[in-house]
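User: Could you check the structure of this?
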Amino acid sequence: MKVIGIGGTNGSGKDTVSKFLAENNYLFVSVSDLLRDEAEKRGLPLEREILRSISAEWRREFGLGVLVDRAVELYKKQSDKYVGVVATPMRNVGEAKRIHELGGKLIWVDADPKIRYNRIRSRNRSAEDDKSYEQFLQEEQDEMHQAGDEATLNSAGVKEISDIFIQNDFDDIQSFEQEIKQKLKEIL
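Assistant: Sure, the predicted structure tokens are below.
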């Protein structure tokens, strides 16, 4: 079983990398979707802070690698259809370490903050995307470093132990896809 985790900054292109891997026969599991499903079951709003809270709760209850383990469970139910699983986003060091424990690779995707902010605004996924540049930067800082609790988000820690780095400052998707192919040819 091949396991790939993708971390990175908001709006950097993590889902695009995941979709590329899905086109190469990996099961794409959005751990954010797992958290959204849980929030919906509980009747809670689908806000970033709620999803962060649920993820920390799960890590405390089931272990730091719980989101990776749930992605692997989904893969195992249909492993005959895929060569492996790709889980994104990895935002906790425990998740990143779990990827490595399973013999997998961790990819970090980044881009210039202003470029990422403009991408997020243009995709208009939710009201969450309608924030000022200053709010965007503050939210990112909040997610970069642990708040004294190993179950909380720590994207900077994930970046530190990543295996492959992809910089996405491209103006068009085709150029980014070429970069993805180049960077990931060793693991495909």
